[in-house]
Amino acid sequence: MSETPPVVWVLADDRAGNRGQCLGVAEALGFPPTIKEIRYGLWGGWPNALLGASFAGLTAQSRRALASPWPDIAIGAGRRVAPVSRRIKKLSGGRTFLVHIMDPGGPGRDAFDLIAVPRHDRPTLAPNVLTVTGAPHRIRPEALAVAADIWRPRFAHLPKPWFALLVGGGTKGRALGAALLAELGRRADALAKGAGGSLLVTTSRRTDPAALESFLGTLTVPSHVHRWDQGGENPYLGYLALADAVIVTGESMSMCSEACATGAPVYIYARDEFITPKYARLHAALYESGLARPLAETSSYVPWSHPKLNAADAIAAEIRERFGTRKI
User: Fold this and answer.
1) Position 140 pLDDT exceeds 60
2) What was the pLDDT predicted at 131?
3) Which stretch of DSSP H or E encloses residue 237?
4) 91-100 — which CB contacts under 8 Å span 24+ positions?
């Protein structure tokens, strides 16, 4: 790359997962990005084949924020932002290097310089497609170090080892209900109790508040519990930074990937009732790579380690390689 840092735009839409993945790649790339807030209007849900390379799906305010000078690199994620990225490239005269996370869908894939797709999505391979394990994220060593210093004193009264328990929720057509959450609680509690340790529990916006009561009732070991629905300071980063092991529900690619970011043992709770075949393929890949193990009724804690996982690093390295060889 040239000595002048490239101008990087992150096209951050209203999906927290998409936003986090884009920012994770930008942070791994090492150039401070300009965040462009992407909000969709009435046409935002139209098929990409109809929208083409356009800003037609955006609100007027979002359209006004997308103006020359155009960026050297634009990073987006998800199907709905793909027409926006393609329009930016067209208006830049083809100069903007387009990075897309996940399959952009529809026609126009050739407009993207790099498409990063998780292996478990079984992407169609092409010269501009990079396959990665899991999802890119923002769980970086420096952020974990800061969080560890903040949260360590608050957990000092709890016996170790500390088990972070990341509780998600249902997805489309698949509920993580009271019975399943109670089973998760019993298994996590038994794992921590067998090791003489504690649980650091956090829920998410998708966790069913009614089912949560059944889950909390299964916990007998010392615990620190953060309920997303009650607000307050979020200890998520602190949990990951300090946990001796991590237990995570398997319906979230982001949570499974972030759980594997620290090198601590990871246990995934997954049942057919709330896990799609696609996510089962992700779990299988993590198990085969030694990054995680299933949380079974008979699981017992034995310390082990694995390489730290963040697809953002692989994507950033590929951007540097491909962008650096272009004639701008």
Assistant:
1) yes
2) 97
3) helix 236-242
4) 95/70, 95/328, 96/70, 96/71, 96/72, 97/6, 97/72, 97/73, 97/319, 97/322, 97/323, 97/326, 98/74, 99/25, 99/73, 99/74, 99/75, 99/315, 99/319, 100/75, 100/76
**Nearest-CA neighbor of 224 among 205, 250, 243, 248?**
243
Q: What is the DSSP string of 141-159?
A: HHHHHHHHHHHHHHHTTSP
In the chain, beta strands by DSSP E: 8-12, 34-37, 73-77, 97-101, 114-118, 129-132, 162-166, 198-202, 223-226, 245-249, 266-269, 293-294
Cβ atoms 112, 99 nearer than 8 A: yes
Name the nearest CA neighbour of 305 among 265, 258, 247.
Answer: 265
What CA–CA distance (Å, rounded) separates 30 from 74? Answer: 14
Q: Could you write out the DSSP letters of every residue in 73-84?
A: EEEEESSTTHHH
Two tokens, residue 100: 């897309």
Name the DSSP class of 70. Answer: P
Residue 71 DSSP one-character state: P
Q: Is 106 left (phi over 0), alpha (psi -120 to 50) or beta?
A: left
pLDDT tens, residue by residue, 67-100: 999 999 999 999 999 999 999 999 999 999 999 9
Structure tokens at 199: 């649980």
